[in-house]
Amino acid sequence: MGIIDLLLVSIRQVSRLRRRYRSAVIGTALGTAGLITVMTVGDSVEENLGRNLGILGSATTVKATIDYSYFRHNDIEDVRKLPGVLDAAPAVFHDVRLVSHGKKVKYGARLAGVESNIFRVVYLPLAEGRPLTREDAEKRRAVCVIGDEVRKALFEPDESPIGQSVDILGISFRVVGVLAQPEDPLFGQTILLPISLGRSQIPDMFPIRKLYIIPKNWYMTEDVHKRVSALLTGRQPKYGQSITYDADRIEVMKKTVDTFKFFLYTAIGVTLVLGGLGVTNVMLALVKERTTEIGLRKAVGATDGAIVSQFLCESLMVSLMSCVVGIIAGGFLVEIIATAMIKGKVAYGMLFQSIVISVIIGIVVGVVSGVLPARTAGRLDPVVAMRFE
User: Fold this and answer.
1) Residues 6+ apart with CB under 8 A from 277
2) Taking all residues of the chain, what is their mean pLDDT, rounded to a whole number?
3) 56 lies in a domain?
4) Which of 11, 32, 311, 315 is deepest in the core (most CB within 10 A)?
5) What is each CA distance from 217 to 1, 222, 253, 300, in whole angstroms?
6) Within this chain, do residues 74 and 221 fall inside the same structural domain, yes or no?
7) How far apart, in whole angstroms, are the C-alpha atoms of residue 383 and residue 292?
8) Nearest to 322 by CA among 366, 273, 268, 287
9) pTM for the full model?
10) Is residue 144 located within the same domain as residue 186?
């Protein structure tokens, strides 16, 4: 029997017995659809999740304590150009003994001269108001964002600080924002000023003390830390012990994501295996039902190889049919999830790759599922088979 004839016979048999294969097709199709959906949407979700740096707060921020004796301003630009770095924000600090608002005084506060991108680089959520802007720095506006502890000391609980003034070293600053309770308690005691104003108006506030670096994706935090360390320690070895990030929290998050993916792919794998076992069981039942037919075919000259080939081909057809159903269902699921949940940002290259992988898995499942029934059919004795009722 030629290949074309074999395929046509197998297609006719599968079509004739399609109801018998229904449960097996559904199981394998569900596994295929799940695989396509997880590979395609999961990759996009993982990428979007990685870019959601706020999910880990300040854990993704790489912090470099600067020795201003060696640090040069072009070091900041060099850090920003490193692969994986989204942005870098310098900061200058100065401790003051007191700040005041009317008759209220807070003893002990930290001034931080920052660029407007500090709110992008360091996780500093606002309770109210707005962050500092580039325009504030360019025009050297006397504005500030205060920490929550500073607010509690200078303002009543029901009083909004926005638009009011605080006096620092004889200079009046208008409050434009208030930090929510930050992860780093030092920021609760801090007053953020435009770096240009701080350097020009506040004594001893010129040298850069800290450099905060944020990666493009929180998965890249460790790599960014290594690159920043290599760059800065290559210029000055003293940086080696002062470039840090929260490695423990990053590792916990990575393990959580990897564990979730493992169980998800395991569930899909189990579904595909169960679908394959369903195909095997149906094929074994059909071998028993078609014993007389097999005996007649062998009696008129069909070889064991021809019988084996037909049953393998039928198993393969069932598996590929399941793949087609699964690919269609998976494609619809991907489109629905993309539209409803991730705003259409789907890696369609990954969709094509997942379809190719699904077809390959379908072929493997079809062949493996058909081996036992095909060998069983091929080994039947024609005389015994023809007597079977």
Assistant:
1) 369
2) 79
3) no
4) 32
5) 58, 10, 13, 68
6) yes
7) 9
8) 366
9) 0.66
10) yes
Question: Which of 197, 214, 244 is the last residue before a domain boundary?
Answer: 244
Tokens of residue 202, six digits: 């506040």
Count structural domains, the chain. 2
Six token digits for residue 319: 């598996």
From residue 377, alpha-carbon distances to 12, 88, 150, 269 in Å are 18, 69, 84, 28
Instruction: Select from 211, 244, 277 the last residue of a domain.
Output: 244
Contact, 329 vs 29, CB < 8 A? Answer: yes
DSSP 130: -
Residue 179 lies in a domain: yes
For the segment 220-258, what is each residue's pLDDT rounded down to a tens digit? 888 888 888 888 877 776 665 577 777 777 788 778 778
Q: How far apart are CA 145 and CA 370, in angstroms?
A: 70
Q: pLDDT digits over 313-370, tens only?
A: 878 888 888 888 888 888 888 888 777 765 556 667 777 888 888 888 888 887 887 7
Residue with tokens 């931080």: 112
Domain of residue 17 covers 3-51+252-387
For residues 26 and 80, state if they share a domain.
no
